[in-house]
Write a structure and sequence with these properties.
The protein has about 300 residues and is an alpha/beta fold. The chain has one domain: TIM Barrel (Alpha-Beta Barrel). About 45% of the residues lie in helices and about 15% in strands.
Length: about 300
């Protein structure tokens, strides 16, 4: 059976993309897996630390147990998303303990997020995680640059962020980061932003972000590994397609499936799960156009 690392490189080489669906509520997982199966699309089931801290994913163990119940290895793998060194509330996190636990439990890829640290410190913590995870055969995702949106306080207006390039991943720093950490793939900031998670803003329509494709191309050229687009919900389709052509091999999707679930569960759990299923189908079939991807990603 192919590993996530092998599948990711096939996606990267063939200029396709692997969707990674974040699960902030456990009942969302089953309809996402069903949509992947029904479209014969390969995707990741993912959970970030904030999804058991800020939402109702439960815990690292709860997500793992639910995944074991509903998984389909023909179409899915389990990924540990953002485990920050410093979280969205500016608190230190015992990141190494969480990630080590996930590796020992059976998560198939992991992410350490040192993006709020100075470059040298981000390199050091990412290398530490990579050295540990690689001994177990588990690939590691790192992040460089500031993909904003999860912060507790206000962020600058989006147009200001985009025009100034504030927080964008530096190609030169990315090259150093990848070389010194031996990370397997890299999350980059090129105009993408996360959906808000604060109680006051989590239901608001997400900003329609745009991507600086020329900047992405420079990063991709310099690092020569698969790149990851966080905050993938709500980005105009043309930008998504171009980003895939220029090095993005994984796209994280959270807000787009979370908000329909939260809205529909006011009526019933069945309607909430159906809303997740229908939205996931639209993302796979229409927005990303990757139905049937499992056929060539798992049989390169």
């Amino acid at each position: 059976m192919l590993t996530i690392k092998e599948i990711m490189h096939t996606a990267w080489d063939s200029h396709t993309v692997i969707p990674s669906f974040n699960i902030p509520y456990l009942p969302m997982m089953e309809p996402v897996v069903k949509a992947l199966r029904d479209t014969q699309c390969f995707g990741l089931i993912a959970v970030a630390r904030l999804e058991w801290e800020k939402f109702e994913a439960g815990s690292l163990h709860a997500i793992y147990d639910e995944y074991q119940r509903v998984k389909d290895k023909k179409y899915t793998r389990l990924h540990l998303d953002h485990v920050p060194v410093i979280d969205e509330d500016n608190k230190l996190v015992d990141y190494f303990k969480i990630i080590s636990e996930a590796v020992n439990m059976g998560y198939e890829s992991v992410m350490v997020d040192g993006s709020r640290l100075p470059l040298a410190e981000n390199i050091a913590v990412t290398r530490k995680v990579a050295d540990m995870a690689h001994k177990a055969g588990i690939p590691v995702e790192g992040e460089l640059g500031a993909v904003m949106g999860h912060e507790a306080g206000p962020i600058p207006p989006y147009e200001e962020l985009l025009a100034s390039g504030k927080g964008f991943t530096s190609p030169a720093e990315a090259k150093r980061f990848v070389t010194e950490t031996n990370v397997d793939w890299l999350s980059v900031a090129i105009g993408n932003i996360h959906g808000a998670i604060s109680v006051a803003k989590k239901d608001a329509k997400k900003v329609e972000a745009r991507l600086n494709i020329e900047h992405l191309e420079r990063i991709s050229h310099d690092v020569a590994i698969p790149l990851v687009l966080h905050g993938g919900s709500g980005i105009k389709k043309s930008y998504i397609i171009e980003s895939i052509r220029h090095g993005i091999a994984k796209i994280n999707i959270g807000t787009a499936i979370r908000q329909p679930y939260e809205s529909a569960r006011k009526e019933s759990m069945a309607k909430a799960q159906q809303a997740v299923y229908e939205t996931t189908m639209i993302i796979i079939n229409d927005e990303l156009e990757i139905s049937g991807s499992a056929k060539y990603l798992l049989n390169p």
